[in-house]
Specification:
With 162 residues, this protein is an alpha+beta fold. It has helices spanning 19-35, 39-44, 61-71, and strands at 8-9, 15-16, 50-53, 56-59, 82-93, 99-110, 118-132, 135-149. The longest helix is centred in the first third of the chain and has 17 residues, at 19-35. Residues 1-14 have low confidence and may be disordered.
Length: 162
C-alpha cells in the first residue's frame, strides 16, 4: 500500500475500506495540502469530482488549483500561513456503502509576521464522496458557507462576495 493511501489490509491481504477512518482522513489530507500551499496536491483529491463555490461548479485539477491561486495569498515560505481545523464530520453512508455524504465544520487560524495568531473565519463543508477502487474520493465539495469571519485581508487576495 502506498504511504497515505486510504484502506486497510483485511484477513485476505486485500485492501478494504473503513469509511469511519478513511473519510475523515480525506478531509484532513485536503486541509494539510491547502495549509502547506500544495494546491496541485489538494486539487488532485478532486480528480473524480468538483468544487462548488458561490454557486459555480469547478471541475478539473488545473481549474481547481487555479481557483485557489486566484483567491489565497501565499507568503514567501510558499504557504498561506494558515491552519484549517476540520471538525464534527457527520458521515451518512449509503446503504450499499459505495457513496457517502459528509457535512463538517472548519475553523481557519492564521498568523503572519504582522498578524498575531487568530481565528479568521469559520464555516461548513458539504461533501459528497464515492468509493472507487477501494479508495474514497470527493465527488463534490460544496463550500456551504462562512458562518463567522474576522479580518481575512491577510488570507484572501480578493474579498468574499456576499
Amino acid at each position: 500500500m502506498v504511504d497515505g493511501e486510504a484502506g486497510h489490509l483485511g484477513a485476505s491481504g486485500s485492501a478494504r475500506s473503513n469509511p469511519a477512518l478513511d473519510i475523515p482522513n480525506l478531509l484532513y489530507r485536503y486541509a494539510d495540502a491547502i495549509d502547506a500551499g500544495r494546491f496541485d496536491e489538494a486539487a488532485a483529491l478532486f480528480d473524480h469530482g468538483a468544487v462548488v463555490v458561490q454557486g459555480q461548479r469547478i471541475e478539473g485539477r488545473d481549474a481547481i488549483a487555479a481557483m485557489w491561486r486566484r483567491w489565497v495569498r501565499l507568503y514567501p515560505d510558499g504557504t498561506p500561513r494558515t491552519r484549517h481545523l476540520v471538525t464534527n464530520p457527520l458521515i451518512e453512508l449509503s446503504d450499499e456503502g459505495l457513496t457517502a455524504r459528509c457535512r463538517s465544520q472548519w475553523t481557519l487560524l492564521q498568523a503572519t509576521d504582522t498578524l498575531p495568531l487568530q481565528v479568521v473565519a469559520t464555516g461548513r463543508y458539504d461533501d459528497h464522496l464515492a468509493l472507487l477502487d477501494g479508495r474514497w474520493h470527493f465527488s463534490e465539495r460544496r463550500y456551504a458557507g462562512v458562518d463567522l469571519s474576522g479580518d481575512m485581508s491577510a488570507h484572501l487576495l480578493q474579498p468574499v462576495k456576499g
